[in-house]
Write a structure and sequence with these properties.
The complex is a heterodimer of chains A (437) and B (338).
Chain A: H1 12-17, H2 43-67, H3 73-95, H4 98-136, H5 140-143, H6 161-192, H7 195-207, H8 212-226, H9 233-257, H10 261-269, H11 274-285, H12 287-302, H13 306-311, H14 330-340, H15 343-371, H16 380-387, H17 393-396, H18 419-422
Chain B: H1 29-66, E1 76-77, E2 82-83, H2 86-117, H3 120-135, H4 138-164, H5 190-214, H6 218-226, H7 231-242, H8 244-259, H9 263-268, H10 287-294, H11 300-337
Antiparallel strand pairs in B: 1-2
The chains are: A mainly alpha (437), B mainly alpha (338).
Chain lengths: 437, 338
Amino acid sequence: MTALVEPIAPTAPTAAAVGGTELPRRDQNVLPTPRANLGRLPVEERFVTWGARVAALALAWVIVERILPVHGLAWFLFVAAVANVALLAVGTAVIGSTVAVADRVVQWLVSTAMVVVVAAVGSVVVYVLAKGWPALRHINFYTHDMTGVGANDPLNRGGILHAIVGSLIELTIASLIALPLGVGTAVFMNEIGGRFAKIVRTVVEAMTALPDILAGLFIYTVWIIVLGFPRSGLAAALAITVMMLPIIARASDVVLRVVPGTLREASLALGASRWSTVWNVVLPTARPGLATALILAIARGIGETAPVMITSGNATFLHLNPAGGMMTSLPLFIFTSARSGIDIQIQRGFGTAAVLLALVLILFILARLVARPSSNKPSLSRLLKRVLRLNTLTQSAGYDVVAADPLSEIGPIAPPQERTTAHPVSHYPPAPDEEVP
Amino acid sequence: MTILPLQDPASNARPPATPRRISRKPTGGDAVFANTFRAIGASVLVITGGIGLFLAYQSWPTLRHYGLGFFTTRAWNPDTDTLGIAAVLVGTVQVALIAMVIAFPLAVAAALYITEYAPPRLQSTLVAVVDLMAAIPSIVYGLWGFFLVEPHASDFAVFLQRNFGWLPFFHVGADPNAAVPDMSRYTASAFIAGVVVSMMAMPMACSVIRQVFSQTPMGEKEGALALGATKWGMIRTVVLPFGKGGIIGGTMLALGRALGETMAVLMIISPEFIIKGRILEIGTDTVAALIAAQFGEATGIQLSALLTAGFVLFVITLLVNTLAAVIVNRSRSGAETS
């Protein structure tokens, strides 16, 4: 028995003699070729890349300043870009094939498009901040309203307190209505289900694309013309609600959908009622996602101009009663200021736009921080989650935050998978009219 | 050794147990829960779906009063009671198409850059930038377009007419070669409105296209690269065919947004009720801007006419968006199977 596993003697000549493996012998005189560096382009390609850039700038200067009758930075950049891609193509053709030329040209086109997009966003933000800066410097801009202030009065008089407060009041009312209704609808679509839920889901998804002006027109006609209520902050809040409701419902739907069914089943198996399951298990699990849904809806609602313009008139003074009287909000103040045609007032409008932009930016960052899974590093995001009590149960429960990211909500979402096909053993949620023999 | 308990013979005498009737129908508190939330769902259905029904209901009086001529009349004169949306509808489509001509290549290229070319560190930042672009309120874009873009864009319009004026849609009723061109003819045009609206439509298309691109199966991409394809070869043969549905759907979704855009268009255009192909020339109108500009003076039948115009806009955006959602979802469900 033991003879079979006896180790073969490691003596090489013996093995070769009986027909074993012979290793190729390394030629000691030839140095091994250096391993190709995959992390960066070869020298000649780098030379073509940078050479094309430098040459393009020089060529653009010659063409724009000396040859063509056009002038200005925009033309210089345009000519430089065209020259750059042409030189890049020629240079690559010298050292490579047409396939390589196509590759480099497309890479250039795609990168340039991205630069254009980033520059466009940057120009919006920088331009609004720069034009709004004279107004933003004055403290009274935030603490005064426009009572008794003429449009031509200097910037150290008057402010946008009334617009800030008006926006706050309208958004608070809108959130108070839209959050319970929206989350409730999402709970209905996910936890109760049935044919009716499918209809609701279809209509809600269709309504996220509703042009904002139509929401305003709807509230204007029904609330103000037919029911006879005055134009007021409340009417504006209702119009904003109509805009926010589908956003919250849809984003919450996405979030609730990825709460693992096993969590629900565990809760039900422990004897909890369905309401108790939703309140104590499903909603807490989805809390970060729901917070994101609300923040996104607020960020959308705060900038809604057209519905507010139709439903709430423009007031120049601080007005705290949403039910009666006109109430200005930030976007409405921007619009009326820009339309006034008076320089000082336009500056106020830009200042207000900067405030609005900053608010949107803050809400946006907040939404990102809340939605993303926190890393182990101590960070602002983690601190924020601790403060807001957005606990980490979600990560431990296999809850896929990225799939539930409502930031992807601006596109259409994948149709809901039938739970019975995805998890054949899952009986949750039961169809209401389903009978089990 | 286990000793089994002895069966009590007396228990056998009981009547045979009938199985409990099992029902999934909620009872007691569960029924209250289910019906409460069903009511919430129904109320949201009424609120959101009600808009469409209400607008449709309001178009009856308009059609009775103006007849089908409402769709072919090119005027909005409440004083003479001649209202029609032919010119406005054409203007809406025109502005949206100009916006998409600018937004589409940028959206596809930006999505490609983010998914395929960007260094990993930059990727999430760029995604955030594009999403932020979608979150900026349209009134801010309106300000930006009115005060920053419009002067430059009208200069560009003069240049376009001077050099490409032989194209009928680049023609403007003014002399571009004059020493001082009449700049007022080149402002407030469909072209400038389209440029600004493209800023709002681009991020939407980009975000959908990016998501579809990022779902391209890694194995097929690596397969193309392993066969010796360049990056562009890999994109052309794997990423683009795979993301075709997403590109079409995302673009249509952005088109839906561009069709319904109000404030930016209202700030830039100068209203005019003429069907014209000359996109660089002053004057055009869109349905949304018409509603925003006219609702205040409108009463009775004119308000009803505005609501009808709104209903037409609603139907168009709904159709475009539904089609887009179907296309995107179909392309995504394909992603899951492969």
